[in-house]
Amino acid sequence: MLYQISNSHFTAQIDSLGAQLVSLKSPAGFEHIWLGDPNYWREHAPVLFPIVGALRDGKTKINGQWYHMGRHGFAKSSEFSLKEQGPASIALALTATPETKAVYPFDFALTVTYTLTEDGITTRFTVENPGSVDLPYSVGGHPGFNLPVDEDAVFEDYTIQFQAEEEQTCPTIDLEAGLIDWNTPSFRLKGQEIPLRHSLFYQDALVFESLRSRQVRLVNKRSGRGVEMDFTGFPMLGIWSAVNDGPYVCLEPWTGCATLTTEGDELVEKKGMALLAPGGKAGHSFSVKVL
Question: What global pTM score does this model have?
């Protein structure tokens, strides 16, 4: 089911399937969220939970048993229920079922809240552990943004701008297996800016960890139009687009990432995996500002 929220600045639509943001329009009518063209990438802004990225051979070990789970987890393909809705905000919830326990044997509650602001939208993930054992999880956003924003522009007119001077080496990602090799660099960032080009993503996403910056922009320097994401509270950031030159870019705040080539398959030992104590509650939010 599609839900709509709005304020005097923006209108957004959210699909209960996956609690996915599928539309964000300003009064001028421009659609900022990727349209989901299956010729490039059929999704819009999937919610990543309880893992981010791929597992080795699509499986992980939990308490001595093997469990199979697809890339980015099951939340993106699960039906969420409406928890609360106001004119400019909405909260959708997902809880454990026999189907989720078949791949992830834990009690959990995940609430995804979208709130429109004067300059964009805020997304908040709230994870709760109603169970009696520690809850291992990672969570992340994956919103795609349509480019170009300007009618007279092309993809290459845009740039990725970081808030602070950075010096980072991105790891290599196996295109088939989806595993991350931190010992083999794929891209080096030195400075605050990456000129946008499709070839940046021919080896999958650019993955950054522990950036000094807490904001990143996709912007046309001539017009100043684009989007800015504040990912404070997320230790990792992925930037991705389709290998077949898709006209969009995803900015992805993550708490964890895909299985590393150097680590084993125990879920609790995966890089970035949080452990939420019984009765615990944790929140992770990011905001998108339209420029």
Answer: 0.97
